[in-house]
Amino acid sequence: MPRLPKPRRLRSRRPALARLTENLRRSRTFVGETRTRVTERIRRQRLLFTAILTAGLIVFALAIWPFTKDHLEAISVLQQVSQKPVPALIADLVSHPVTTQDLTLDTESGKVRARLYMPANNPNAPALIVLHGVHHLGIDEPRLEGFASAMASTGLRVLTPELPDIKDYHVDSTSIKTIGESTQWFAHKTGAPVGVMGLSFSGGLALLAAADPLYKKDFKFVFAVGSQDSMNRVAQYYRTNQDERPNGSTELLPAHEYGPLVLEYEYVEDFVPRQDIARIRAVLRAHLYEDKPAEATASLKLDERQKAEALDLMDAASPHTRSLIAAAAARHANELNGLSPGGHLRTLMTPVYLLHGQADNIIPSAETLWMASELPTITLQAMLVSPVISHLDMGTNPTLADQWHLIHFFALIMHAAETPTGRTPWL
After folding, report:
1. Average pLDDT per run of 10 along the chain, which is 427 residues long?
2. To the nearest 10°, the Cα dihedral for 280, 281, 284, 285?
3. What is the distance between the alpha carbons of residues 316 and 338, in angstroms, rounded to a whole number?
4. Nearest-angstrom CA–CA distance, 254 and 372
5. Exposure string (b/e) for 277-298, b if CB count within 10 Å is 16 or more?
6. Phi and psi torsions of 376, nearest 5°
7. TM segments (predicted)?
8. How does pLDDT run across 328-342, given as a tens digit for each residue?
9. Is 118 in contact with 77 (CB distance < 8 Å)?
10. CB–CB of 151/81 below 8 Å?
11. Is residue 301 located within the same domain as residue 364?
């Protein structure tokens, strides 16, 4: 009988199970350690990304802060000029208390009354001159005081010198010299050229002072608001209600009586007989000064013929008055040319900023277009004709786009005032 093979002994499965268990344990340990390492790596990467992002935002914020600051200052100024409250956050960031000091400037031609607006605790703040327009209150005119104080509250030293002839409604060459010498005085006081802002006819005269070799080194920039390019063309506008633009089109806008009256007051001898000059001038002066009691008193001294003359002059739209304006402008054409920046701008190297109200009916906005067309590209820094303002007053209900354009323009002015060159590299 054949022998049967011996049955094979079954190997114990316990060692294999143990090895499997150990391998699973090691795998779990490896997975856990790997997960921990991956989690830590992700955490470090997130921290690094956050640090880089934070650093980038800080660098970006520092880089754009001058741009942002200039615009916040512009908002602050425009809110104050509009007699609206400045938002608290903006006020906290850019506003300073302001002190004022009445001064007498000793210039080559004599003493000039002036007022200095200073931001508190900043005696070396950047300097700006603001020239008043044709108004009998001069540097005491409330709108000018408010504007100068608003500019000073953003960190500027603001000087408002008084122009006696402009104050008495005379636009003449004497004021060019006063502007130049006042700018010299302030530049010497601050140790550097200063920005000069001229309102209305003073803006055109400031451009002429900046073009004068005697004064040009003291001007950092000129900011002309609602100013003339050609006095002859403005005089023509007063009798035609039209002002031609550089592109050949015509601006049509009825002139305000104020403009023709200033011209009549300047050259009253061309409008009435010699024996009537004193009495008619007194009436015109009181009318321009908005002094109704004085105007009534001056009118009582007129005889019937003189009353008719005065009434005729008050009506700038009458054909007779318009013919007299034309004759006076022709007679004084050379003098008016001497008060006109046109013809002096092509070689002007001082940076220039031009702002004009679209609805200005005292000096039409076409005048700013003429100046912009004549200035060298390197000289003209910015130009804006805005519906937000009229002559020197703020308008009502502007669009958001129009408000932004005006804010951005004023931001350029703030930047120019705070930089040594008076130019705006981030235009």
Report:
1. 58 65 70 70 70 51 69 91 88 90 95 96 93 96 96 96 96 96 97 97 98 97 97 95 93 92 95 96 95 95 95 92 95 96 94 96 96 96 92 69 93 94 76
2. -150
3. 25
4. 23
5. eebbbbbbbbbbeeeeeebeeb
6. -60, 150
7. 47-67
8. 999 999 999 999 999
9. no
10. no
11. no
Residues 299 and 155 both lie in one domain: no
The SS3 of residue 197 is strand
In a domain, residue 181? The reply is yes
407 and 307 assigned to the same domain: no
Rama region for 110: left / alpha / beta (φ>0; ψ in -120 to 50; rest): left
What is residue 99's three-state secondary structure? strand
For residue 14, give the amino acid letter. Answer: R
Paired residues of 383 in beta bridges: 354
> Which pair of structure tokens corresponds to residue 272?
């009435």
Q: What is the spatial distance between Cα 244 and Cα 367, in angstroms, rounded to a whole number?
A: 9
Assigned token pair, 186: 């302030």
Altogether, the residues listed in the chain come to a count of 427
**3-class state of residue 154 by DSSP:** coil
Number of domain units in the chain: 2
- What is the 8-class DSSP label of residue 296? H
Amino acid at 311: L
Torsion over CA of 172, 174, 179 and 182, rounded to 10 degrees?
Answer: -160
268 and 183 fall within a common domain: no
Is the separation of the CB atoms in 374 and 237 below 8 Å?
Answer: no
State the Rg of the chain over Cα: 36
Query: Cα–Cα distance between 130 and 143 in angstroms, integer?
Result: 12
Sign of CA dihedral 247, 249, 252, 257: positive
- Which of 317, 335, 353 is a domain's end point? 335
Cβ distance 316 to 238 under 8 Å?
yes
Q: Which domain holds residue 285?
A: 252-335
Q: Using DSSP, state whether 11 is helix, strand or coil.
A: coil
